[in-house]
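Supplementary Text 2. Reproducibility record for the structural model of the 377-residue chain.

All settings were left at their defaults, and a single model was retained for analysis rather than an ensemble. We include the record here because the model underlies the residue-level annotations in Supplementary Table 4.
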Amino acid sequence: MKLNKIYSAILLSTLPLTPALAAGLDRSGQSIAAFLQSGNYAEAGISVLDPTVKGKDLIKNNVSDMAEDYYFPSAAIKVQATEQISLGLLYDQPFGADAMYSLEQSMFTNGIEGTKVEVETHNLTALIGYQPTENWNFYAGPVWQTVKGTVSLRGLAYGGEDKLGSYDINLKEDDAYGWLAGFAYQIPEIALRAAVTYRSEIKHELDTTETFGFGAIQRPNALTEVVTPQSVNIDFQTGVAANTLAFANIRWVHWDQFAVSPKFLNTASGNNLIDYSDDQWSATVGVGRKFNNQWSGSASVGWDSGAGNPVTTLGPVEGFWSVGLGGQYSPAENYFIQAGVKYFWLGDATARTGTTDVGEFEDNYALGYGLKIGYRF
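Retained model, structure tokens:
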């Protein structure tokens, strides 16, 4: 079952590339797989998610698909500066939300506008790794992150127009720093690798504009604290037969203390804009196989716990199960093109505002697609 370096490199890159649809605002999964590649390596990719989230509100009105499609790019470069020192730069969009309720009759619209949310983040991670032997790799580095968001609440789910059913908030973009550290152990001859990576929480103070009465009343600008959560990724892979690799990923994200609590909204209602009650756990397991010098593929199964139920009306899903397929074409030994697709069975959830359940969302699903190009130099 001994694998040469070329076979190992090809198999390593069959890990799933399709996007995550995870608990809370989690999106990318914050992988550092590119940094753990051998030699000098660069990649760029794009992932697309097409979710369908439907349900019924408290008074049994049908709620059509409120989840917006979204895409996010990623990129990475890793340089083996010396035999023992490696450098890397990773870009991704780790957290986000895109949702808009339609104008059909429901508790989430006033007939003119529907409740909507957009949250966007960007991450740039710089890494330095130290390899005292070919088996061990210790790495760490700073993380620069930006966050911004807008939310509009409409309809009886938020008390109607005389309460928070005409509320808008603009969280202006803020940047802040965190850090990452981890280690990996590998046996290249059998394509075995185990890695544990910790990412710190990152605290933001966002300039905030809150308006009420469809913008007629503007509350004094204030700062809103948003702390993106700490996380741990555990990655494992090993050769199990000639040209065949088994892999697994376990991810923990500390969502149970996450809350966004703007000053006016909290004063008016005593509630948070967004919060979660449980930590997220997720796992992916699969197999990758090299068919010949140019073609390889992978299959995976995934699970996500969600971050508690009931959930916010801005993301009424609790976890998922998924299956994924990926394929890779390598015209030459030093570069490849990879594509993948993943199907998600989304967990049923109860949507809540404050202490009131306002909707049930059941039997939903999503499709994810990904494309990536990798190059070894």
